[in-house]
Task: structure prediction
Amino acid sequence: MSAGTATAVTIVTIDANPIAPGTGTLSGSSDLTLNSQDLQYSGTNVTAVDVNVSNTAASDHTGDVYVALQDSSGNTVASETVTDQTFTANSDTITTVSFASEHAPDTFSRVEVNVEETA
Result:
């Protein structure tokens, strides 16, 4: 860089929106454990949630994974369900639950996850 020349740098900041840790429920099984849920982004918008479920049984199980984005009043902003997900025996399975459209982080404040074993 020579004298008198300036370089412009643009820094993008994203306003923090406190999103409560996902509330999770598991029904119909003592073999499955809900480990975690992670938001997936496109730019700054949420497009999906990865749900990590552990199966401690010696056999595979099948279940449905439901995810809802909720506002601070508990109203559902978006929800999706993956049905007939196979949870492999003695391992962790990550299910990606994708939303039909992207959601800005300031449109919801919590994530609800429900996993129901069906077979």
Remarks:
- Residues 4 and 10 are 20 Å apart (CA to CA).
- The domain at 20-117 is CATH 2.60.40 (Immunoglobulin-like).
